Amino acid sequence: MSLLQSTQLRAEPTAAAARRAFIRAWPELQNPAAWLVALILVIMPVIANGFFLIEIFGTTLILGIIALSLMFLAGYGGMVSLMQLTIAGFAGYMVAVFGMSGNANISLGWPWWLATPMALALATLFGTLGGALAVRTEGIYTIMITLAIGAAFYYFTNQNWAIFNGHTGINTVATPNFWGVDWRADIAFYYVTLGVAATCYFAVQYVSRAPFGLALQGVRDNPRRMAALGFNTNAHRIAAYAFAAFIAALGGVLQVWNYRQISPGSVSVGACIDVLIIAVVGGITRPVGPFIGAFIFVLLRTFAIDLLVKFGLDGNRFRLLIGLGFLAIVFWSSDGVIGLWDQWRRSGKAATTRSGGGRHG
Amino acid sequence: MTKFIERHPAWALIGIIAIAVLLWLVFAIWPPGLEAAIGRKRVFLNAVFNGITLGGLYFLVASGFTLIFGLMRNVNLAHGSLYLFGGYIGYAVSTWTGSWILSFIAAFIGVALLGVVLQLAVFRRMEGQDLRQTMVTIGLSIVFADLMLWVFGGDFYQVQTPAWLIGPIQLPLLTAVKSSGEPVYLQYPLVRLVIFVASVVIGIAMWLALNRTRIGMIVRAGVDDRDILAATGVRIQLVFVLVFALGAGLAGIAGVVGGTFQSLSPGEDTRFLLASLVVVIVGGMGSIPGAALGAVIIGLAEQLGSVYIPTYAIVVTFLIMVLVLAVRPQGLLARR
User: Which residues of B touch A156 (CB under 8 A)?
Assistant: First the structure.
C-alpha cells in the first residue's frame, strides 16, 4: 500500500509533492525533540568530561549500533538473531588480526585503511553465511540457530590459539592516526562514533522505507503471500542479514578501537544476550529504540554497583538487576521503553481529548 | 529401515560401511601402521567411550528440552539454568546426607517443582506467544545464573561418586597385545558406564511412556496439534504442567550426572544450553529418538574432536549442525 503511494508521489513532478515526499521519508526532521537530541549529542564534548564522553556516551552509541542491527532484523524482518554481537566481535577480531597489535606473531600489520574494510567485508560475509543458515528454518528456530552460532564462536575463540590467541585474546590493538589527529583521543573518537551511529540510524530508517525494506516487512508479516506475489522471500531475508551484519561489523570495529583489545569475553554468550536485552528494553519497532536501550544498559552497568552499595545491598548483583528489569519490560510492555512511552503519551492524549470534546474512540 | 535402504541405496551403503569401519576399529587389534598414523587404540577407545557416555548426559538434558519445545513450542533458554540448579541441589543433598541416589531424587523433585512454578506462574500467562516466552526464558536464565552465583559462588563443585562406583573396570575389549603375547584390555571408569546405562533406561522408559500409555498418547497428540487436542476435552494445561515438570526434572538429574562426571560452576549452564540446542537441531526438534541420535553424534564428535584436532573441536560439532541444516533443515529424525 505504502509502496504504491510512494511511487505515485515520485511520479508527480511538482516541487510541493517532492517536498511532501521528503517530509514523509524523513519525519525526524520535522520533530523538534529530535533536533534537540541531535544538538545535545553534537555539543556533548563541551558538557561532558572524558569519562562520561567515552564510557557512557561512546559506549552507548557503539552498543546501540550493534543492537540497531538486531532491531533491523527483528523489527522489520521478524528474525531475532542472537549472533549480531558475534558478527561485531568477528569484525573486531579481524581488525586485530589484519591490523597492528601487541601480538605481533598473530597480527599481519596492515595499515588501518586496509585492515578495516577487510574486517568489514569478512564480517559481513560471516553474517550473511550465518543468515543463510538461519533462514533455512523458520520463526522461533532462528533464535536457537543464531545462539548456537554465537556460542560456537565463543568456544572456538577460546580454543583456537593460531588466529584468535585463545582466552587471552589480542591486546593493544592499534587505532587509526592520520591527518595529525589521534582518532582514538576522546573527543575525536566520540565524533567518529557519533557519525557512524547517525549514518547507521538514517541508513536503517531509509532502508525501512525503501522498496526493499517494505518488501522485507511484507515477508515478515506474510511470507506466503509475498512468495505468491513473486518475491524471493529467502533472498530478502538473507539480504537483510547481510545489511544487518554490515552495521554490526561497524559497531564491532568501533568497539575494538574503543577498548584497544578483544578477547573471548567480548563475544561470550552473556554479551550476545545483552545485545538482545538492549534492543528489547529499548524497543524493536523503531531504530531509536536500541540507542535508548543501550543508554539505560550502560547507565545501569556503570552506576548500579554504587547504587546497590548505597542501598546496603551487594554491588555484585548487577546482573540480577538487569535480568529482573528485562523480565519486567517483557512482562509489561510489548515494545520496551518506546512502547511504554507511546502508551503513556496515548493515555495522556486520550485524557486531554476526552476532557476537550470526548471525540476519542 | 528397509524403506530407507530402498530409497537411498547410496547413503545406506555409506552408512553401513561407516558402521563396519567403526566396529572394526573398536574390536580389532590395530596394525602397527594404523597406530603410527592416528595414535594408540586405547586413546581412541577412551574417546569413543567418553563420547558415548557424554552423549548419554546430553540426551538427558536435551530430551527435556525437546519435549518441552515439541509440546509447548516454548524454546526454554533457561534449560541450562535448570541443569545447573539440579546439579547444585544434588551437590548439597549428597554432601548433607552422603547418599548419591538420594541426590538424584532430590534434584529431580526440586527442579521439577521449579518447572511447575514456572509453567503455572509465567508461561501459562503468555501461551502462544513464542517469542515473548523465549525472551522471558532468557531473562530467567540471567536471574537464575546470578542467584546461583550469589548462593554458591564461583567455585567448582563435584558431586562425590559413591564408594561402590569408584574405580575402573575391565571391559572385554582388546586395546593391544603385549610383546609377551599377553592381551591388554580396556580399563574404563565404572561410574560413567552405570550412568550411561541409566540414561539409556530413562530413554527407553520415556519412549515406552510416550508410545504405549494413554498420557503418552495425549502428549504425542499435543505435539502434532495442540488446539485440536484441547478441543477434544483433554485438560491440556495439566498435560503442559506435567511435561514441563518432567523436562525440568530430567535437566535436574542431568545436573547431578554432570556434577559427578565433570564439575559444576557458573558457565556450565550456557555450555549445556548450547549442547542441548545443537543436539536438538541435529536430531530434530520435538523428537525423543532424534535427541538420542543427536546426543550420541554430538558427544562422539566433541570427544573425538578434542582428542584428534584439539583446537578445532568445537568447529566439528558446529559443522555437523551446518551440514544437517543444509541437507535436512528439520533435523535428522523429525517428521515434518
Answer: 312, 314-315, 318
The more confident residue out of A181 and A237 is A237
Residue from A327, A333, A334, A335 whose CB has the most chain B CBs within 10 Å, to mutate = A327
Phi/psi of residue A262, nearest 5 degrees: -145, 140
Q: Rounded to 5 degrees, what angle do the CA atoms B14, B19, B24 make?
A: 125
Backbone angles phi, psi at A234, to 5 degrees: -65, -35
Q: pLDDT tens across A308-360, in order?
A: 777 766 667 777 888 888 888 887 776 777 777 777 878 776 665 544 433 33
Cβ neighbours for A6, distance < 8 A, ≥ 6 positions apart: A21, A24, A209
In the predicted model, what is the mean pLDDT of residues A231-255?
90
pLDDT of residue B245: 92
CB contact under 8 A, A277 and B136: no
Contact B329 A136 (CB under 8 A): yes
H/E segment holding residue B168:
strand B168-177
- B111 falls in which pLDDT band (50, 70, 90)? very high
What would the mean pLDDT of B30-58 be, rounded to a whole number? Answer: 80
Count chain A–chain B contacts defined by CB atoms under 8 A.
113
**Sign of the four-CA dihedral B233, B238, B241, B243:** negative
CA angle A177, A67, A181 (to 5 degrees): 10
Strands, E, within chain A: which ranges? 177-178, 181-182
Whether B285 contacts B331, CB under 8 Å: yes
Question: Do B125 and B132 form a contact (C-beta atoms < 8 A)?
Answer: no
Cβ–Cβ below 8 Å for B146 and A319: yes
Please check whether residue B325 touches A, CB under 8 A.
Answer: yes
Question: Over chain B, what is the mean pLDDT?
Answer: 83
The 10s digit of each residue's pLDDT in B59-72 is: 989 988 888 887 77
pLDDT digits (tens, 9 = 90+) for B148-205: 888 888 788 888 887 777 777 777 776 667 667 677 777 788 888 888 888 899 889 9
Which residues, in sequence order, are bridge partners of residue B174?
A: B185
Looking at the complex, report in whole angstroms how far the Cα of residue A25 sits from the nearest Cα belonging to chain B: 30
Residue B170 forms beta bridges with which residues? B187
- Any idea what the Cα angle at residue A202 is, between residues A196 and A208, rounded to 5°? 135
Cell (9 digits) for A125? 560475509
d(CA A169, CA A350): 55
The C-alpha angle B26, B8, B317, rounded to 5 degrees, equals: 50
> Can you give the pTM of this predicted structure?
0.82
The dihedral sign for the CA sequence A220, A226, A227, A231: negative
Query: A140, B314: Cβ pair inside 8 Å?
Result: no
- Angle of helix A84-98 relative to helix A112-134, nearest 10 degrees, comes to 150
Q: Do the interacting molecules here have an ipTM over 0.95?
A: no
**Contact present, B135 and B103 (Cβ < 8 Å):** no
The CB-side HSE value for B268 (13 A sphere, CA atoms) comes to 29
Length of chain B equals: 336
**For residue B223, what are the CA distances in angstroms to A87, B5, B121, B177?**
35, 28, 22, 52
> What does each C-alpha distance from B164 to A346, B53, B141, B161 come to in angstroms?
69, 19, 36, 8
pLDDT value, residue A10: 47
Whether B312 sits inside 8 A of A314 (CB atoms) is no
Cell reading at B103 = 541426590
Contact A147 B77 (CB under 8 A): yes
φ/ψ of A169, rounded to 5, equals 70, -165
Coil, helix or strand for B93? Answer: helix
pLDDT at A103: 73
